Amino acid sequence: MLVGLSLVFSVLLGGWIYSHTQFLGAHIRKVQEEYETEGVFWEAVSLLEEKGSGFTVKNLASSFIPSYEVTITGDTIAIYKNQVLLLEAQFRWQNGELQLTWVENPFIRPYAR
To answer: How many domains does the chain have?
Structure first.
C-alpha cells in the first residue's frame, strides 16, 4: 500500500515538474524573442538617426540578428521575422530630432508618448 501511494505521488510530482518546465521554457523563449526584437528596433532607430529624415529601406537584414528584417518608410519602422510582423512604430522628425510617437508589438499594445 505504501509503495503504491509513493508511486502515485511520484507520478503526480513528475507530471507537475514536467508541465512546469514546459511552461518556463515557453516563457523564456518569448522573453528572448522580445529581447531580440527590441535590439533590432534600437538598431533601426540608430540607423534612422544616422541617415536622417527621408531615409527609407525595405527588408534590410539586421546586423544584430540577421533573421530579422527592418523596413523603414516615411513615418514607420516595421520589424519582421520570417515575414511575420513583430513590431511596428511610428515616428516623426521635429527640429531635426527623431521622435517616436507610437509603438506596438504582441506584448506591448499601443504606447504613445
So the answer is: 1
